[in-house]
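Standup, Tuesday
Yesterday: got the pipeline producing structure tokens again.
Today: sanity-check two examples.
Blockers: none.

Example 1:
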Amino acid sequence: MTSPRHVTLIDGSGFIFRAFHGLPPMTRPDGTPVNAVYGFTTMLMKLLSESDADHVAVVFDTSRKTFRSDFYPDYKAHRPPAPEELVPQFPLVRDATRAFDVCCIEMEGFEADDLIATYARAAVAQGAKVTIVSSDKDLMQLVGERVQMFDPMKNRVIGEPEVREKFGVGPDRVVDVQALCGDASDNVPGVPGIGIKTAAQLIGEYGDLDTLLARASEIKQPKRRESLLEHAELARISRRLVLLRDDVPLPVAMDQLAVKPVNPETLAAFCAAQGFRSLMNRLNVKAPPVATMAAATPAALPVAPKVETRYELVVSEDALDRWIAEATRAGTVAFDTETTGLDPLRAQLVGVSLSVEPGRACYIPILHSPPQAQGSLDLGGGGPAADTPKILPAKTTLDRLKPLLADPAVLKIGHNIKYDMQILAGLGLVLTSLDDTMLLSYVLDGGAHGHGLDELCQLHFGHANIAFSEVCGTGKAQVTFDRVPLDKALAYAAEDADMTLRLHRLLKPRLLAERMVTVYETLERPLVPVIVEMERAGIKVDRAALIALSEDFGRRLGELENEVIALNNGEVFNLGSPQQLGKVLFETLGLPGGKKTKTGQWATGADVLEELAHLHPLPARLLDWRQISKLKSTYTDALVSQINPATGRVHTSYSLATTTTGRLSSSDPNLQNIPIRTEEGRKIRHAFVADAGCKLISADYSQIELRLVAHVAGIEGLRTAFASGADIHAITASQVFGVPVEGIDSSLRRRAKAINFGIIYGISPFGLAAQLGIPQGEAKAYIAAYFQRYPEIRDYMERTKEEARENGFVTTLFGRKVYTPGIKDKNGAMRAFAERAAINGPIQGGAADIIKRAMVRLPAALKEAGLAARMLLQVHDELVLEAPEAAVEPTIAVVKRIMEAAASLSVPLLVEAGAADNWGEAH
């Protein structure tokens, strides 16, 4: 064997988690989760195909207990167990590594980072260069002349400059900086009050940690000096924790890491077992005869034949007119926009691509300029700068495209077409008659996989689209699309339109075959223009009120921190540290009932603090501190920066194809998670205000999920109660506990309410007992009494679980599929989780469908009534509108009528509505 020239060491454990959290849920034919396996496999395949390394290994952690735990038990002790859906994927990732005939390395008592350090040192000693495939900051101490890191997720090389940018020091002093600033994610204590910048400054001034600690008394800043003197030993312990061992006995000899040819049969068998049909196509391997693919598994769908591509750059009026005429004759055209950014309210249109048949597409540049002459979109201007390739004037192009985009006789197909509609709306252009391949995929396959264009092309065609980073670069060198050379822009943009058209031809016929036409045509497709208008409208925010509230929260946090410290006999500790809090509660204060997690750390979650709050005031104050801290950082501070300066409003973005149940999700900012059960949370809603002369209207479905339970489970007792308009929780308490309705006290009603809302989520006796503060046996008796009084609910649960086991999904009243991965899993915890999701799917999904039906119908109803109100927000079961003050009452009447008629159930739908100057008072 020759000595290695280039050794690549892959941080396997790191990439398992990144793949798991970065990809949507995916399952193989038998229901086993495989999203992390899929992400890891594609990453490994790409690395092997692009690297010139002659020696490669994937390095894994084995367990949390290592030699570091022996001298510092709190090391990584606070980390929660791995997600249930990830646990069965750990061995499969190792199988994936072996399927490529790549060496797997792990060793009890040591972390993957220690093994990577040891192999890197050994490789350098043999004269090889080393690439560490990871983004883990702890590995940056290894970077040197012959060692570099590579982050494949960001396509970024990490060398000495990048390390200095991160830590403020060279790789040889990273350990010293980490020892000072600590690492909360690993429970490395560090020195209190010292962050990365301060640590880098100190190490830069004193040279190294030992010198700094020896001369700490010379430091002028009192707090810094005292902290270093008091916590010097913590710094030394921290250095031992972060310093990687590079002298571990090699579990596998270096020559065993040599790259070997892949055995196609082994690789094919692995991919077939996971249902990775698209990967098999990319790898050009065939499934063994014994491998079977479930027809319902999206990854196993037939792969479309490859098509020869012919892409055209449109830079003349004749060519543009020819494409428009061809699209008009065809009656169907795939359409995509390229822009300067992701915010549709601020991005500029750079170009448009069209495709009318598979393999044929064009790109029409609108705003392209070299870096030194970058301009902005001017609808009245001429062409581009003189030294750019000749393109048509923007106004000419858009004037010619306008009739095609608005033509109802021509179907425009896009992928996430909501974004394209927003961009066009900013230019006064309307896109009518549309289909969205992202929504087609979402309706057909729900939560079975993600619905991004790149993922779907991999899944269905085995085709890897050109990556955005390939044309625009990465990191500081990344450019906006208007600065991309036209040949690269053509290949990238035309491919998007081409592949969108191919997806449409593959997916649209499945609607009828799989009986999903109603969901797509009545819920998802008509909702797109409604959401576009909502996002563009935004909602006004009182900046001054937010700032004042943030300052108030800051003062409250300081007061609470002082109270907590005083309750701890004046001993200062980090309120945000679960480790330190656990010691205060159960060791210093000696409170009873403390429980340690599997990692050996005291449990200090909200449930624990709530149980302790009646025994001592400190846990109660700590709960208040946590709540206000989250409100300040997540909402009052963040929302101020998210106000659009041009509109004075915040414009949330709704994701239409993310959740498993059909619910919309909100981001940038997320306005669906603002808490309303606490006074502080409600204060945040008060900062959302109506425009001058208007009022905000909040219309909320009352107990819609409980009403759906009564309907789908056929619970006569609940149906009767809802029909009579009685207090549903008082009626339940009366029927379950055998007490006359007139004699129901607030305690019994609260217990009935907890069961009513908890039962459909599979609440356990333990969970109910914790929620109500009663013995577990008593909670178990309550649940048994509930099932005895309402036996229909148990029948519904069993029926729904069986449906999920048989089909892999359950359906809502309107036919939406809610996938239930893991329903047949051998792991009991994972199976139970899937069963709870199956029971809740038709309920939560049904509620999502109902409010979508209302949203689709509401704009036309308001227009027909001559009302100028507009929808601004959807927050689960609530709609927020803005209306002129004089039109509030008629608007509420129309909104209630439409929302309450959105579904025909065996129980009435009830909507509660209010109006005020701000959201808090309207709800």
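Example 2:
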Amino acid sequence: MIRLIDISLLRGGRPLLSDANLTIHPGRRVGLIGANGTGKTSLFKLLQGELELDGGDLQINPQWRIAHMAQEVSASDRRAIDYVLDGDTELRQLQCDIELAQAAEDHLKHASLLEQLDAIDGFNAEVRGRRLLHGLGFADGEVERLVTDFSGGWRIRLNLARALMCPSDLLLLDEPTNHLDLDACFWLEAWLKRYQGTLLLISHDRDFLDSVVDEIASLEQQQLQLYKGHYSAYERQRAERMALQQAAFEKQQRRVGEIQDFVRRFRAKATKAKQAQSRLKELERMELIAPAHADSPFKFHFLNSDKSSDPLLGLTDAKLGYGERVVVETESVRIHPGSRIGLLGANGAGKSTLLKSLVNDLALVDGERICGEHLQIGYFAQHQLEALDMSASPLLHLQRLTPTTSEQEIRNFLGGFNFHGEDATGSIVNFSGGEKARLALAIVAWGKPNLLILDEPTNHLDLEMCHALTVAIQQFEGAVVVVSHDRHLLKNSVEQFWLLSAGTVEEFDGSLDDYHHLLQQLKQQQAIQNSAQAATADSKVLDKKAQRQYEAELRKQLAPLKKRCQKLEQELEKVSLQLATVEQALADVAIYEDDNKARLQTQLLKQAELTQSTEDIESQWMIAQEELEQKELLLRQQ
């Protein structure tokens, strides 16, 4: 059980939590939500022991194994599969101990360690690790690549796989769906549903939360409020609670007004002074109810272009890819005014390649790109966050686009993205990933596009901003093409899907639920095929556990013979070195001079003795080796 009792937590002198309380029971799956900067990640660090409380008490089972998803990966020359397996420290320690026991020929300890490894399913660890990587979108060949070969987003996936690989009683995941595609989100969702420990999950993905968690812990006004049920249930409960709170607040304000009015009227009158003082004491005792803060800080829209064309954009007989490598081919795709298109497809199918080709960031390998006369693209992609000018303010970013626009008009617009005061006029160098994403979206919205092309726009955004983005897309009058793992965004902003599969682009006649069912059918077919292959393989080999026990017993019986062979090999190596030294001395012409006759005779005698010793040892080694091979053959036939 996790218990937070009247805890206070400060960061940089700013209170994140103040006298907050929360209880999480074992086995619960809890979604932790709250606006960016309210303390979600700090709470995770607190549970991991990386932060100290400023007040209150944290109670957590000291025996619990805690696994968490790191947000950064340092450069490493480890293979991806090895990096993931390193997450299971118990496994790695056992493997190390087994190697030491084997090297020391401690066969009893070796056999015991093998049993411990079998108890934690260690012999199948690499298979499990590869399954995790495949589920998160890594191809077969990629699991052998070095960590340094992957981009930042893919390294975060490696961190996620490493956290899932680690046996744990408490699993802490901070925005695990960032950098995942929709297929990987479906896989992760299924994996977490099977997880047996306690899960604490930070996520902006409403549908993901709805599917995975059974409680919501909301960071509100430096407090932690626990709601039963998934995210949609939280929304209903919170709306009801806020409505009751607002009603209570208004009722209390009426009572406060009545008291203050009574005091003003009768405080000076002797006959009413006592009652006035009583009213004042009532006012002092009254615990003031905070007004409901249900309004989102984000409210913006995409400025619409004055002109349009039909079609806005298209590709004809196009081959898309990099250099000579073609990733996607299409005979004809067209984007018309008002189109609402979502791209579906597995990782590597070419979704980002198609977007880059549409915006002309990537030249076509072959074919034609057709642009409407009045085409104005608003393009959002993760690399654009890195292209922001860190020394400039949000205000300056927009002023550079439209120098003649008044500063107040730009400030008003930025306010819809919750950039106020110094946040709007100061440098963005210390902006978080979420703040940079908001600014990049503001730049796109300011450009008056008639075609929005969005590549994973919800990464780094909190739930309130995701909701505001969904509303803004709904109100946008132009065309939209979007790639996103956020199902709520897709369900509420697109009207048709394009499926990228087998190197082609085709219209998908179905919903997201239909696409999910298609993926499940494909996985079931693959599972049946894998089971058939596994059954065939099992019919040809012994049961793995019995085979390991047999091999351990065999090593124990063969140990004395192997030890004798190794001892003879060491003696032979020692004699061979001595013989080489003698022969080197005999190769010196000076030894054959008259003055060195005695030395020559000594060296010749040594050569003869060492040669004979070499032959004797080799003969003994051959006999011992033959005996060892016969014994191995005899034991294997038993």
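Quick observation on example 2: The chain has five domains: 1-65+168-229, 74-164, 237-285, 313-509, 544-637. Residues 74-164 form one domain.
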